[in-house]
Structures are given as C-alpha cells and as structure tokens.
Design a protein that fits this description.
The protein contains four helices and six strands, in the order H-E-H-E-E-H-E-E-E-H. It is about 35% helix and about 15% strand.
Length: about 120
Amino acid sequence: MATGTGKTYVAFQVVWKLVKSGYFQRVLYIADRVFLCDQARNEFGPFKDARALITEGEAPKHRKVYFSIYQALYSGDVRSKLYQQYPPDFFDLIISTNVTALGMEHGRKFLITLAAQLTSV
C-alpha cells in the first residue's frame, strides 16, 4: 500500500479484532522512525493502557500491544540485545514497517534473527 493509504489503520483494525477475540495475546509493532512509532501508538489509542512503548533499556512485558523502533530493539551489547529479553513465543504477531530503511541485507538479517528469537519459527 502506498504512503497515506491507511496501512496503520488497517493494522489497528486487524489487531483489535484478533486481540479482543482472544486469538492473540501480545502484538509487537515495529517502525523505523520514532514519529512513525508514535503515530501507530496513537492510532491504536482504543487499547488505552494495554499499550506499551519499548525503548532502549526497557522491556515491558505486561501489556497487549507493544511499539518500538528497530534501533531500540537492537540496542545493547552483542550478548544482550533488548529483543533478547523477550522469551520465544512472547509475541503472537509482529508487524514490521518499512524494513527497507534499514538496508536490504541488514534489515533482512535483523528480521530473521528477531523472528527466530521471538517466535517458534
């Protein structure tokens, strides 16, 4: 979908239905820029206090919908990246936006690593 066509709104609608139905317990929304992360968090406003922002050094674990930027999830030293603080299978769904901003090869490797850590792929 092109810029401005409502991708975030569509994502919210899908996540809302899946979380409210009990099918999903926790969702991670990753953006490449802080303002896009904030925009998504605002769009998901009806979740109210069930939303959490993952920032460098903080790994909240008691919400339904989590928002972060790639850089925050990848922060930390080589042996202790922030995303590694979440156990495998913690997130039922990971929504990733604009991974091309990371560079194709780096972005691809990061998503493969993240998916392997956070899901049972």
